[in-house]
Design goal:
The complex is a heterodimer. Chain A is α+β, with helices and mostly antiparallel strands. Chain A contains eleven helices and seven strands. Chain A has two domains: about 100 residues, Ubiquitin-like (UB roll), CATH 3.10.20.30; about 130 residues, Fumarate Reductase Iron-sulfur Protein, Chain B, domain 2. In chain A, the strands form two sheets. A five-stranded mixed beta sheet of chain A has the order 2-1-5-3-4. A two-stranded antiparallel sheet of chain A has the order 6-7. The radius of gyration of chain A is 22 Å and the shape is globular. Chain B has a single domain, classed as Up-down Bundle (3 helical TM bundles of succinate and fumarate reductases). The N and C termini of chain B lie far apart (about 50 Å). The chains are: A alpha+beta, B mainly alpha.
């Protein structure tokens, strides 16, 4: 694609307060090498349609604000180069499976409510250490690997938009909250599996996943939520059959030596700040 | 109710179906290549009445029919209930459908169990 070319953006416009139904508008945008879909939207907003609404922040695939449906695929606008689409037309719509606030802005409130319901943080019984931590908990590299890839989620909503179960069942938590439920339950520092099980082990819960894996295919950060959901199912079934041996959350913290240092773990370096 | 219980039984019922249906297929279709003479004592086709009656006399077959019926009903009706649960019909209609499926499942299990026991009784009388 040469630099003098123009690329056409076909954008779904909708203001629920004034429009009876969504409409489509096409814009001719000058193409530049390295141009992302978000760059194109900015150009349109500056030059052709100042009323165009879209959400963005970091412009570098970290904040997860600019999730939208680009040429039929839910992904990040800032992370998608126009040239990589290999299409004469860039079709942009808001993320499916969410209500639209305006134009390309989805209402992500239900997603964050479901995320909150699975208690996405470390749950432990030692409240004192939780509220006023004295140091860091021990964790081996192997224990870190158990959940690391699921912690790369940026809550952009792409997986939720790609999920076929979300499309038919509004009570289904969705791939992001379920993957995060596993992410925290698999953390060796956590002891909140039973509490999270209450939130996901129910009708329209984790077992409603059909393992279509569209969520994993859509994730712009390479997270595999479908795998996390299957691992969560396995853990719940094993827990029911009493085949799952729950480990006590790791208790040792640097400095306190409450349980002693485990074998093979080298001495922690001196604190850089006294 | 924890859904993992139902899901676990759904999976276990599927395994039971796999084994017992496999046994059924072997008896029905591999009688000429496997030494199953004891299960088809009258010779000829495995589905001939004399062979069916001979098998019905065995307590193992009566028990396996009942277990297979229970597993198939639970596996199938739970699956159907899940599909209905994912449609866009109202919550009340879903609850009604679940209740209907439960009543249907219990009724069919009672009738089928009676049939398996009665068949054995008939076969024993000769």
């Amino acid at each position: 694609m040469s630099e003098s070319k123009t690329i056409h953006f076909r954008i779904r416009k909708f203001n629920p307060e004034t429009d009876p139904a969504p409409s489509w508008k096409t814009f001719a945008v000058p193409f530049a090498k390295g141009m992302t879909v978000l760059d194109g939207l900015h150009w349109i907003k500056r030059n052709q349609d100042t009323g165009l609404a879209f959400r963005y922040s970091c412009r570098m695939g970290v904040c997860g604000s600019c999730g939208m449906l680009i040429n039929g695929r839910p992904t990040l606008a800032c992370n998608t180069q126009v040239a990589a689409l290999k299409a004469a037309m860039v079709v942009v719509a808001p993320l499916p499976n969410f209500h639209t606030v305006r134009d390309l802005v989805p209402d992500l409130t239900p997603m964050f409510e479901k995320h909150q319901a699975i208690r996405p943080f470390i749950l432990r019984e030692d409240k004192g250490e939780m509220d006023a931590p004295t140091a860091e908990f021990y964790q081996t590299p192997h224990e870190l690997e158990e959940y690391l890839q699921f912690s790369f989620c940026i809550r952009c909503g792409a997986c939720m938009a790609a999920c076929p179960t979300m499309a038919t069942d509004r009570d289904y938590p969705g791939p992001m909250p379920l993957a995060q439920a596993y992410r925290y339950s698999a953390d060796s520092r956590d002891g909140g599996f039973a509490e999270r099980a209450k939130a996901v082990d129910r009708k329209s819960g984790v077992f409603s996943c059909h393992f279509g894996s569209e969520c994993s295919a859509a994730c712009p950060k390479g997270v595999d939520p479908a795998k996390a959901i299957q691992l969560m199912k396995r853990r719940l079934v094993f827990d029911y059959l009493r085949l799952f041996k729950a480990k006590k959350p790791c208790g040792g913290v640097h400095g306190q030596r409450t349980t002693g240092r485990r074998e093979g773990i080298p001495e922690a370096p001196e604190y850089t700040i006294k | 109710m924890r859904h993992s219980r139902l899901w676990t039984w759904h999976i276990l019922a599927g395994l039971v179906i796999l084994v017992l249906l496999g046994l059924h297929m072997v008896i029905m279709h591999l009688d000429e290549v496997l030494p199953l003479a004891g299960l088809n004592p009258a010779g000829g086709e495995a589905i001939d009445w004399a062979n069916v009656a001979a098998r019905a006399k065995l307590g193992f077959f009566m028990a396996s029919y009942i277990v297979l019926l229970g597993a198939a009903l639970f596996h199938g009706l739970y699956g159907l209930n899940t599909i209905i649960g994912e449609t866009n019909v109202g919550a009340g209609l879903k609850r009604f459908a679940t209740a209907c499926l439960m009543v249907m499942g219990v009724a069919l299990f009672v009738v089928g169990t009676y049939a398996a026991i009665a068949a054995r009784g008939l076969a024993m009388k000769g």
